[in-house]
Amino acid sequence: MPKPQRVRPSTPVLPTHARRQNLSLVLQALYSRGPMSRADLARTLGLTKVTVSELVSSLLDSGHAVEVGRTTEGRMGKPGILIDVNRSGLQTIGIDLSDHRALHAAVLDLDGTVLARAQRPFLLEEHTPGAAAATPAPRDGAAALALVLELVAECQAAATAPVLGIGIGTPGIVGRDGVVHTAPNLGWIDLPLRERVAVASGLPVSVCNDADAAAHAEYSLGDGGDDLILVKIGRGVGCGLIVGGSRVRGAHLAAGEIGHVVVGTDGGTPCRCGKVGCLETWVSAPHLERALASATTARLPGRAGSAGTVDAPGPVDDPGDLGADPLAAAGERLAIALAPVVAALDLADVVLCGPEHLVVPALVDAVERTLRARMLVRTESELRVRRVAEPDDIVVRGAAALVLWDQLGVA
Ligand SMILES: [Zn+2]
Fold this sequence. Notes:
By secondary structure, the chain is an alpha/beta fold. Helix content is 36%, strand content 20%. The chain contains eleven helices and 16 strands. The chain has a five-stranded mixed sheet with strand order 6-5-4-7-11, with helices on both faces. The protein is globular, with a radius of gyration of 24 Å. The protein binds zinc ion. Zinc ion (ZN) is lined by residues 260, 271, 273, 275, 278, 280.
């Protein structure tokens, strides 16, 4: 007997919804295909010329679209006027709160080109080795928010055209209403970030998790396929998941939050969450940097056992004990955590993203080698493991792309 189908509750489609959707369709067509005449738009969208003319008039009035010339192709009748999204006449602001050294913001055009930048230093306080069990002092959430508002104001001043909206990629779990539920590294608990920034700026604001923003950029602006996982190594470790071309959010909006999954049964470093051996204690940027520094120190001639040395010789005494090749070891740990996810969702694309000096071939190769060793991968091409194609500004660009999605309905 067939199982009863689940029916997704649907909201009634009001005329205003249909109109908004049609406006988005026009902008989406123009944004992805370039300038078109009203007649071509009508043909492409399957709408009447009268409807398209009315929609285009509205978009011209609001400044979302502009006339950019006339068609040159020899068609019957007089040449049509070409309409395009107001690419140079609208800008967006993208903000990345995930870097463990600074908060970044940028003004971008609609193609994702960065036009101006702003940043504020924001160092993640680290506990010292030997006091590894201590929890880092809670961040001053008000100070972090004040810096974000400063960045917004600076970008608004730097914008040379009307700003369509502000996109923010933040660590932590973000609710549908733009509330950041927990972002310990920023000192935020249930902070209504979208509302606070919208009130301060007078602009529409979109907020999402930083790894989701990066996955969004890779999917909509980059080389990403329809089934991908993007692992973002920064202050912590998080993932953005695209399955079947849709962003996965999960039952509690925390899909991809694998940073505090314990990897292995061999112990490890106490984590700030209270557990021991979380993925974050193996792979986050602060931990990797400390492990690299310790490995370098350990290799210095005469260090181990030399007269006057107080440190114990032997294995690197960094909290993660990642050994002499910390990046390869971290890649292996990461892949151990990823393999069941990649296999269960049958993902084809594993994309690694993080600081350039950390996401190096040694780490990427270790991830690929370990994944292939732990999964049933039928062919070489079935699984692609790679560093993100365009790592620069990926969260900023992804957050800005989110604004296009939310405000223009374009992916
Ligand atoms: Zn943890």
